[in-house]
Amino acid sequence: MADSTAFRQVAAEVYYSVDSFATAGPEAVAMIKRIALESPRKRCRICFHPGPEATAQEMLIAMAGRSYVRPHRHFGKSETLTVLEGSATALLFGESGEVTRRVPMGPHGQGRTFFYRMPEGIFHTLDFESDIFVYLETTTGPFDPAKSEGAAWAPPESDPEAGFDFIRGLDA
């Protein structure tokens, strides 16, 4: 069965569902994977909530293997992540950048953790291991960038090569 939900693009890598009853199937996943692989930041998301002001925020996200998400933490909210495709390791950090936990992640049935709920205040990121990683992320809104903090001890996302090298260097 084909996807029936339509999407509107609001930024280079960000789409919103235009339907109040939203669905996602193989076509939606194929779309975000294609865009993630072609985009400069190697990512794409579909937001299924109506807008940044929504109290429940649900996003289908694809990240290419060389993507970099700066370690960060959220204040006043948690987030959940459910893996649909690919593999990555969730990395949790202490205040000064030491890795405190590594959680290998993959889809259900493949012997890895497929779900987490990240409490507020913990620095975290993902080390993408497969060519593409697709997941569902949920959190509370409204979206407010001031309620997140990028780790000062990690490269900024504006330097993805340094970020990728930083993440890979954590295994050394």
UniProtKB/TrEMBL annotation:
It holds the Pfam family DUF6016. Residues 31-103 form the Cupin fold metalloprotein WbuC cupin domain. It comes from the Bacteria. Signal peptide: none annotated. InterPro entries: Cupin_WbuC, RmlC_Cupin_sf, WbuC_cupin. NCBIfam families: cupin_WbuC. This is WbuC family cupin fold metalloprotein. It comes from Marivibrio halodurans. The lineage of its organism: Bacteria, Pseudomonadati, Pseudomonadota, Alphaproteobacteria, Rhodospirillales.
